Amino acid sequence: MTKIAFIFPGQGSQTVGMGQQLVGNNTDCHHFYEQANEVLGFSLSELMLNGPAEELTKTYNAQPALLTTSSMIAHKLKQARIIPNFTAGHSLGEYSALVASDVLSFAEAVLLVHQRGLYMNEAVPAGKGAMTAILGLGKDELAAVTHDVTSNGEVVQIANLNCPGQIVISGTAAGVLEASSKAKEAGAKRAIPLVVSGPFHSELMRPAAQQLDAAISAIELKQASIPVISNVTAEPVTDASHIKNLLVEQLYSPVRWEESIQQMIEQGTTIFVECGPGKVLSGLVKKIDRSVTTYCVHDEETLQQVITELGVEQHG
Predict the structure, then answer these.
(1) Is 30 an active-site residue?
(2) Could you say which of 75, 114, 201, 298 is catalytic?
(3) Is 91 labeled as catalytic in the residue annotation?
(4) What's the whole-model pTM score?
């Protein structure tokens, strides 16, 4: 039987109006909005549907907004009996994967990622940290560059291993700038600064990780009903206590996305369904292995297309 993975995007994929077409008159989807608004104590749905964009983009708003949209989509797919063999998410997206795998309830997750966003925002003052995508330089060569810069007093490290030829670095603004320059000297084709509010997945996030640890400890995580591929290890995990520890580590550890996709392919996955706005993850998957099939579900039309095509594959 065909193996399917649900993959969930992280920050940067948010857009004003996301999820609107999915909700319509659907009571189930409205329930996601209502739960999020109630748990958070403000109208997240209003922000998602009408913006303004600069408010939606703030990390503590973008995280619950993306989780809400992604969870809504995964719920509708599962309702249609499209059940994945694996789930995985890029950074924040891992929380959407955990909801889809029944480790966290949606209400628990939406509050947790809002808190996570606040902790991340507080950890490093705006403008003090940065992230940049380095294109065309190998992992080992880039690691040598970041180690050299860090040794001289400015923290910078590999943050996202996205796909062949695309690695993101993260750290102090000065460290990232210096490492970007040295990476180009070492043969990188381009260095593209990312529009983010902090140095995510770097050692500078350790204060946020301590706060996140306390927040997660207050929740009873459940065993995963579907294996989740961890950002930290790029391995499938189902044990609740292990997942908890990995979520804390995730804040200051690299996102091993390329290895995560390879892991699922090695386990027989041939179809990847991106649940959420945008097509970033599907693009990365295709750069990792062009032979697999990808779908992007972000509105009612794409949802029905996937339900029709994958329903035949799984049940026809």
Answers:
(1) no
(2) 201
(3) yes
(4) 0.96
